[in-house]
Design brief:
The protein has 109 residues and is an all-beta fold. It contains no helices and twelve strands.
């Protein structure tokens, strides 16, 4: 199932009671919400592009083949600066567990 987002899209590849696997596409010049999860635990794996990820109070650049684990409570944000980015997200199944701190599109949690 493909879900359009203001910054690109996410496609749910698999969702079951144990995990969710998603493909995410972020357009150049866009970013997702500055957010955290109360329960959800996720791993992000970059497929294409240089994905800028904010966590631990700093921005880092992740290239194709790089990954990061984001635990509950860790504030994070992804941004595509120089080019479109494609990445995978594997997580626990709590899809609605998003606490938005800041959002370019005025979306609420």
């Amino acid at each position: 199932m493909r879900i359009e987002k203001p910054w690109g899209y996410e496609k749910i590849i698999e969702k079951n009671e144990k995990y969710v696997m998603k493909e995410l596409f972020m357009k150049k010049g866009f970013q997702c919400s500055l957010q955290y999860h109360e329960i959800k635990h996720e791993t992000v794996y970059v497929i294409k592009g240089n994905l800028h990820i904010f966590y631990n109070d700093e921005w880092r650049i992740f290239e194709s083949g790089d990954s990061i684990i984001l635990k509950p409570g860790e504030i994070h944000r992804m941004k595509a600066v120089e080019e479109d980015c494609l990445y995978l997200e594997a997580s626990t199944p709590e899809l609605e567990d998003v606490v938005r701190i800041e959002d370019d599109f005025n979306r609420k949690s």
